């Protein structure tokens, strides 16, 4: 499979075409006292496999930054809950990452959006608008749909006023 075919698979499928595992890995150990000890591995909190091709999977949820986006990076949000976090999302082929992008976990984790970029005014000191890249939409749309089945990323983007570029 070529990279463009893989990305087309991401764009042309819906969340119902995928099987989700959350959390993807939990290790259990016995302590010397005989108690079970669960260890959650750091990294992505969720993984989904394409039902029609188990070589294709996506993973998401690993922290992009320690803590919420602050300062200028939090200004784009118009959600009631202003806490926005960056999380990594990856497309995997046979378990190996072949594409990675940052998603914004917005409104207290209720939405996954492509990470917005600031477009500066000509004076280069003020933000004119916030945009998301069109090429970032397919993976964000899939992840948002897998994580939040009743969410509609396109409607969410309209609500926020984020402009789609490209």
Automatic annotation (TrEMBL):
Name of this protein: Uncharacterized protein
Organism field: Blastococcus goldschmidtiae
